[in-house]
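Fold it.
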Amino acid sequence: MARPGQPSRPQSERAGSQATTRQALVDAAIETLREEGFAGASARAIARRAGCNQGLVFYYFGGVVDLLLAALDAVSKERLVRYSAAVATVANPADLIAVAADIFREDLDAGYAAVLVEMIAGTSSTPGLSAEVARRIAPWADFAESAVGAAFAESPLRSLVPTPEVAHAIVALYLGLEMLATLDRDRTRSTALFGHLALLVSAFEAVSSVASHEEKQ
């Protein structure tokens, strides 16, 4: 409350200040997960990065875990926008694999993969976190299913590809590759796999196309 004789701050200004503080805490939580891991993501460490009192972590988010989940939400939202724009140009399986390889490298370079890896690591020691992280991963299966369906729509392999199962496998593979590349800091085998997949899919498409042509004759 303002002191007598002093004008109070406009409500819009207060709301803007609160939004700025919340965003600063989310950004700081992302950086803390990237650089210090889940174990190092304390209220004090995050608040120090955000340049504010650690009590604001609890004031705005109720606790550290909820703040970390908000950080994961922010990263997922940003990546989903990027992924959606990238796959919009995909016309075949080879395109999809090339886009996936590019985004995979981007995620590793920017440290986005580390955020998810650390949150998954935290599920073993934090009750209830596993379900929350799994709920945030689930939309990626829907996204992958849509992308696979579009990429294989005109492919000779479209009748051989069980889209939901392939989408699930892609999400699982992607998470596994990100975790390994983040943990051992060696991405060479992970990135090379995309090239091998592209060659394999091209070979299967060629064989399927020839077989289909022979059946029509």
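The two ends are 85 Å apart (CA to CA).
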